[in-house]
Design a protein that fits this description.
alpha/beta, 5-stranded mixed β-sheet, globular
Length: 178
């Protein structure tokens, strides 16, 4: 299964694609989208939409994971970040992908082991968990971390769902579940 992780931002949106095969993760690609700052908000959002759509077409992920917006001290900045996050959630949905959302704290905890990890610690662990990835920016590393977090959380959910489906199937077929 292929997962795209997205770290939304109006100035820089990181993306990272990984392949999941059982409990093995492989790096596919990563990058950063940098909408020009000298254009209107609507044009920047369109730019982000267009570039994310191209990325989706190029790497054909099966699922997407997006980092949630955190509350800034400046409400205006939070609203702007929310606009870019809306695009980051919308584009995969338009490609009919399931979209999961994770807080920055849960991403850091999943990848580094602590929710208060620094950017340097996240970068180091991404490089360790995905040999050969060498993300060229913090935004790309954060996006790969979101994808890694999703791979851990989603695999547990799939196992749980599979086990529950087996119980349901046995119950529906009259089987004994002792």
């Amino acid at each position: 299964m292929r997962v795209i992780g997205l770290d939304p931002g109006l100035r820089h949106t990181g993306w990272g694609v990984i392949e999941i095969n059982g409990n093995r993760l492989s790096f596919i690609a990563s990058g950063r989208i940098n909408p020009p700052t000298n254009i209107t908000m609507a044009e920047r959002l369109k730019y982000l939409y267009d570039e994310l759509s191209i990325t989706m077409k190029n790497f054909t992920p099966d699922e997407a994971a997006v980092e949630e917006v955190f509350q800034n001290k400046n409400p205006k900045s939070t609203v702007k970040l929310g606009h870019s996050r809306g695009i980051a959630v919308l584009v995969p949905a338009l490609f009919n992908l399931p979209v999961a959302e994770y807080s920055a704290k849960s991403v850091k905890q999943s990848v580094v082991g602590t929710g208060s990890a620094t950017k340097d610690q996240v970068m180091m662990m991404v490089n360790r968990l995905l040999p050969g990835s060498a993300p060229k920016s913090d935004d790309a590393a954060d996006a790969l971390a979101v994808a890694i977090c999703h791979s851990h959380r989603a695999s547990v959910e799939r196992i749980w769902a599979k086990n529950n489906n087996n119980v349901i199937n046995r119950n529906n077929s009259g089987g004994n579940i002792n």
